[in-house]
Specification:
This protein is of the alpha/beta class. It is built from 7 helices and 5 strands.
Length: 162
Amino acid sequence: MQENNYINGKRVLIVDDEIDVRETLKDLLPMCEIETASNFEDAKNLLQNRYYDIAILDIMGVNGFELLAIAKKNETTAIMLTAHALSTENIIKSQIEGAASYVPKEEMVHITQYLNDVLEAKEKGLHFWHRWLDRLGGYCEKRFGKEWQKKDQAYWDKFRQY
């Protein structure tokens, strides 16, 4: 099976206040139908009035967590993408508030893999985050240190059950 099999032809909304991020993601996802928004109001309007298979939401600059709530209400699968809001607290908040994944902008070069994981999980009835630690645990260890999960150990112990 090709890696991007699940994302072929999917409608994707990219929301980020940085044009270079929007353009890079568009270039990385040529197999998808892409729409973009650069601010909260435009993104809110699109999420409320159009169908998307998945939305990629920046956290900072566009009120990403508020957009996540709107996406969730409209049954749009959403992933959080961030550089400045990169923290273990925001990883946990994203998962608890209903995001299907949390991707550091430094890792957006692998966006097809992350979207494919999410859409495969959705199709197969698996937890969205079932591959997240396998894909990004090493990144988090490098970024936050070897004991990055220790502060929220109970949460991460439960998380591993996904």
